[in-house]
UniProtKB/TrEMBL annotation:
The keyword Lipid metabolism does not apply. InterPro entries: DHquinase_II, DHquinase_II_CS, DHquinase_II_sf. Its EC number is 4.2.1.10. CDD domains: DHQase_II. Belongs to the type-II 3-dehydroquinase family. Homododecamer. This is 3-dehydroquinate dehydratase. Keywords: Amino-acid biosynthesis, Aromatic amino acid biosynthesis, Lyase. Substrate binds at residues 79, 85, 92, 106-107, 116. The gene is aroQ.
Amino acid sequence: MKKLLIVNGPNLNLLGSREPQQYGYETLADVEENCRKVASEYGYETECLQSNTEGHLIDAIHKAGAEFKQGHCDGVVFNPGAYTHTSIALHDAIKGVDVPVIEVHISNVHARETFRHHSYISPVAAGTIIGMGTKGYKLAINFLLDR
């Protein structure tokens, strides 16, 4: 069975309790379960990873790139959290592998603080979904698997 990788960055483990007016009340477990359901409709499984550590996220992108080349992974849905605005290393990791990555943000980062308006990830992502709440993950999966 083919798979998708769902990757969430720093502080997304706090979904449901951290700033619910901004991010809603769904937990990360809810998001991951919804991703599993959507992917299973296409006959795919999901591997979900959340880390507050940049290096773990880079390792996950590298692994997905290797699995993509082997035909075992069809893409990555990636919410890099605050690393979006700071991580050249994540930019380089995505650029260095061929796997399609869809960048997802639950909130509309362009309606927030100005430091959130720049993304190091967008230039190397296959697409970006911003401000659609947790439904953005479903949209990203649909895009990857409808390609």
